[in-house]
Amino acid sequence: MRADIAKDPFVPEIYRVGSVRRELADAVTLELEPVSGTRPDFRPGQFNMLYAFGVGEVAISMSVGASEGTGFVHTVRNAGAVSGALARLEPGATLGVRGPFGTGWPVAEAEGRDVLIVAGGLGLAPLRPAIQEVLARRERFGRVTILVGCRSPSDILYQHDLEQWKQRLDVNVEVTVDHAGTDWHGNVGFVTTLIPRSPFDPDNAIAMVCGPEVMMRFAASGLQKAGMPAGNIYLSMERNMKCAIGLCGHCQFGPAFICKDGPVLPLERIAGLLAVQEI
Question: Range of 70's domain?
């Protein structure tokens, strides 16, 4: 095919599973390598469409930054037919990959500012590439705070990474759970309760938020109550994406298409829609 003919975005490339790592009881991390050619570059916050042959396709965000390795890394939760088929893949298996698609986290725009990361549950996966990029160039940012909330201690994602980040003296990391037994000695409560006591200048900070939609709604409210402008709060939205290029309309969110205009969107653009719980 001639170089001047754009690649068809509907045709997947074939990737091979290099390794599978169990993260949670219902979630695994897949390291994928291209069978031929090289992996395209991507930005933290973007996603791929992963195709389990004979089953279907699903949108999954990158969970490791582009500077790490030569392939894609995706953390997949077994939550349906397609994601279940992907979660059961073994090393050496092949799958189809389309992407990368969508908008990314505003890491470059955050330089010179405080950075606040707010993750709920598996929402830490799309945020991890942004965290890796910020920490790799730590001197370019102000105070960095990572807030993580999960249902229980057994649901905490990337525990090894969290421990490594906690050991740094230039990052504030707080983890909380909704409920726990007597053997848990950390925070108990929703992740949004950590916002008021977090060190950041609301007039000179960028917040990146990902998790269940109800959690993001309360996090956005908490950040605004702390004085952060809506234009400095970014959310990663999740919808049923099919085409990934804004044609089919499955992921329409008001006037926006999450696959094309998102998934990362500033709160000021979607605040009115986010308040409508039925959407």
Answer: 13-101
